[in-house]
Amino acid sequence: MAPPILPHTAPIPSPPPSSVKELTNSTSLGSVPPQYAIRNPETTMDIEPIIEEEIPTVDFSLLTEGTPEQRSQVVRHLGKACEDWGFFMVVNHGIPERLREAMLISMKEFFDQTEEEKGEYTGKHVMDPIRYGTSFNLTVDDVRYWRDYLKVFVHPILYSPAKPPSFREISKEYAASTRAMGMELLRGIWESLGLEENDMTKALDLHSCYQVLVGNIYPPCPQPELAIGLPAHSDHGLLTILLQNGVNGLQVKRRGSWVRVEPLPNSFLVNTGDQMEVVSNGRYKSVLHRAEVNSQSTRMSIATVVAPSLDTIVEPASQLVGDEHPMMFRGMRYGEYLECQQATRLKAKSALDPVRLHAE
C-alpha cells in the first residue's frame, strides 16, 4: 500500500540563535539583525559625542602599606574620586598577573563551550546562583544587547559551573583576592566619609557580604554604530571591580558627557554602585556607564560586585543625615533590591526610584 499523502505544511523555521556568540559563529553577518538595532539605521545622529579625560588613579599599595600621611592622602583622593566621578582605576593592587590571566582564560573556555553545554545554566530566575544568558533580561528587554553573560555567586557560598574543570579553583582564588581588595577600598571610602569601619562592617554585614562574578563577552559586531553591548545603567552593589581582556569598550558618564575609559596596564577599574549612593545618603552617587561594541575584536570583561549581605536592610548612615542633609533614601533589604533591579528593564538609575525619598 502506498503511504498516505500528507497535507502540505510550511517548513518550521529554525529558532533564533540563543546567544550573540552563536549568532556570529553560525552566519556571515553583514548587518545587525533588527532585534539588536537600538539606533535607526537610516541615521546615526543620535549618537552622543564621546570625550577623552584623565581617570582618577588610586595607588592601592599606599592605601594598605604607606605611611600614615600617604594613606591619609590616598583616602582623600579616593573620596574625591567617589564624589566627582564614582569611578577610578586601581594600580599596585598586588593581584598577580597569572591569576588575572587564568580567570580570563577560564571564563573564555566557558563561553567557548557548545550552546547545549552552556544551556544547562540558562537562568530560570534572576536569583539563580549560576546563570547564563544573553542581552540583560529577555523577558523584559525591548531590544537585545550585543552581549552574552555568565553570573556566578561566589560569596558567602561559592558556586561554580562544572566546566571548564579549572573554573572552581581559579574563581575561588580570584574572588577572594578581589573581595579583599574591595574591603580595603571600602575601609578607605568609609574613612573619607567620616564613618567608622567597624560600624559600617556591622551595619552592612560585610563579613557575609554578597559577591557575584559576572563574565561578559561582546563578539565583533558588523554595525557597531547601531548596536550596544549594554545601555547606560548603574550597578546594584557597593563597588564593582572590573577586569578586561585588553579590548576597551567601557564608557562612563561624567557631568553630562560620556568619557571613553582607557585603563593603564595591569590596573583594575572600579565604580560605585547604588548601595553606595544609599549608604552615603547621596554624597557618593552610583555612576552611569555603558558597554560599546566594535567590528574587529571580541571584548571580554569580568566584573566582581561587592555588596552588603542579602539580608541587610541598607539605609543612609545616621552620621550622614541631619538638618542640612535630610534622609534621601528609605531602607530596603538588599536582596529585595537586587531582585527588583535584575528583573526589570535596564534603564539608567531607575532601580533607585522605589527607595528614593526626594526627587533629584
What's this, in brief?
With 360 residues, the chain is of the alpha+beta class. The protein has nine helices and 15 strands.
What is the number of strand segments?
Answer: 15
Radius of gyration: 22 Å
What is the typical, i.e. mean, pLDDT? 89
Cross-sheet strand order for the largest sheet? 2-3-11-8-13-6-5-4
Helix content: 25-40%
Largest beta-sheet details: 8 strands, mixed
Q: What is the strand content?
A: 15-25%
Derived structural class = alpha+beta
CATH superfamily (homologous) name:
B-lactam Antibiotic, Isopenicillin N Synthase, Chain
Shape: globular
Could you tell me how far the N terminus lies from the C terminus, measured between alpha carbons in angstroms? Answer: 79 Å
Q: Can you walk me through this structure?
A:
This protein is an alpha+beta fold and 360 residues long. The protein has a single domain, classed as Jelly Rolls (Sandwich). 28% of the residues lie in helices and 20% in strands. Strand 9 and strand 10 (257-260) form a beta hairpin. Mean pLDDT is 89; it is low at 1-16.
Keywords:
disordered N terminus, metal-binding, 28% helix, alpha+beta, 8-stranded mixed β-sheet, 5-stranded mixed β-sheet, Jelly Rolls
Q: How does the SSE layout of this entry go?
A:
Elements: H1 20-26, E1 50-51, E2 57-59, H2 60-65, H3 68-84, E3 87-91, H4 97-111, H5 115-119, E4 130-134, E5 148-155, H6 167-192, H7 197-203, E6 210-218, E7 230-233, E8 239-244, E9 250-254, E10 257-260, E11 268-272, H8 274-279, E12 289-291, E13 299-307, E14 313-314, E15 332-333, H9 334-343
